[in-house]
Design goal:
single chain, alpha+beta, 8-stranded antiparallel β-sheet, 8 strands
């Protein structure tokens, strides 16, 4: 199981310089017990200060992949060990020591001289991998098995440079198999890189599958992931009576902050089974269950949501309604309240009007006086 993807700052910033990099002679390894039987957690570190590069990969791998290292060696106290990590593109010759199941040490790197020829046998033509690219593939354990799996799933044949890019972005054999097992055979290897970069993994796809969204395009998977639409969000929306056949409605709602809590507030206020457009419009304009409940309390519960939106936009809230009621205007429509608000009519102004001997003027008279500059 992949726990951390590779980090390589200068490679991502300036890939054209990859051929100029000096291939390191070695690096550091760390091993701890894995979460499952016969598995170990392997961390490989490499740093090259001159290029400001850093590499940190961590995987749970079978102990059997560490040639020459036994479970007894790992259980020892201060035991010196020597083992190899053999991969398609190269070998890491490791030395170090173990104490109570945990070990650390250094490795030296040796490229596999037959690797380029083996790639050619599998139809990977064009420029062969540079020494730096082959090193990258060794570190990420991206090699011949991945090439064979891509061919089995009928992907376009990648170039050596594309394989190196897949290595740097965490697209390994396990990832390709996981995606394929979920029914995604995308054809283009670069689609795998894009999905991996955006966090589209087996668990995310499984969550969409369980919510009823299957066989999506790579672009759709990336889009919903980027916008925070996952199986949990979809399930929570369904539980509150909202089920949409199109993903775009879910993306739109998520972008506008329509979440289960907002839906719950509307449901409790009596507004249910609204469309995605209505939900996002209400959210954008600040009309939530609390606002609706407060407006109901002061006597305003229109069936037309547009009236609530316009009232909210014009600053007509429960406190404003109460203030005008206290000034003697108790049966105003929402349209009249909006008009009064737009013209700056407040309880204080009404009181000043009455204090100047205007008696009990109509709302239109109050507005005219306000418009004429009466303070």
């Amino acid at each position: 199981m992949r726990f951390a993807v590779l980090l390589l700052a200068s490679f991502l910033a300036a890939p054209v310089l990859s051929a100029q990099h000096t291939v390191p002679s070695g690096g550091q390894w760390l091993i701890e017990p894995g979460e499952r039987s016969a598995m170990v957690r392997l961390t490989i570190r490499y740093g090259e200060r001159r290029y400001h590069d850093s590499w940190n990969s961590q995987d749970d791998v079978p102990l059997s992949q560490l040639v020459g290292l036994s479970a007894a060696d790992m259980r020892g106290s201060g035991v010196t060990v020597h083992f190899k990590i053999v991969r398609s593109a190269g070998t890491l010759d490791c030395e170090g020591w173990f104490d109570a199941g945990k070990g650390s040490g250094h490795f030296t790197y040796q490229a596999n001289s037959d690797f380029v020829a083996e790639l050619a046998k599998r139809g990977i033509n064009g420029p062969p991998p540079t020494a730096w690219e082959q090193f990258q593939m060794t570190m990420a354990d991206v090699g011949l098995e991945l090439v064979d799996e891509l061919a089995r799933q009928k992907y376009d044949r990648p170039t050596a440079a594309e394989l190196a890019r897949m290595a740097m972005h965490g697209v390994d054999l396990e990832y390709v198999r996981d995606i394929g097992a979920r029914g995604y055979h995308l054809g283009d290897p670069q689609s795998l890189v894009r999905m991996r970069d955006h966090g589209v993994d087996r668990e995310f796809i499984a969550s969409l599958d369980s919510a009823g969204y299957r066989n999506l395009s790579a672009e759709d998977l990336v889009r919903v992931r980027d916008h925070g639409v996952d199986g949990e969000y979809i399930a929570e929306m369904k539980a509150r009576g909202y089920q949409f056949t199109d993903l775009e409605s879910l993306v739109q709602m998520r972008d506008h902050g329509v979440d289960p809590e907002f839906i719950e507030s509307l449901n409790s206020a009596g507004y249910k089974n609204l469309g995605a457009e209505d939900l996002t419009r209400l959210r954008d304009h600040g009309v939530d269950g609390e606002y609706i409940a407060d407006m109901k309390e002061v006597g305003y519960a229109p069936s037309n949501l547009e009236e609530l939106i316009e009232a909210r936009d014009h600053g007509v809230d429960p406190s404003y309604v109460r203030s005008l009621k206290e000034a003697g205007y108790e049966r105003l429509s929402l349209q009249e309240l909006r008009r009064a608000r737009d013209h700056g009519v407040t309880r204080g102004f009404i009181q000043r009007v009455k204090a100047r001997g205007y008696g009990n003027p109509s709302l239109d008279e109050v507005i005219r006086l306000r418009d004429r500059g009466l303070e």
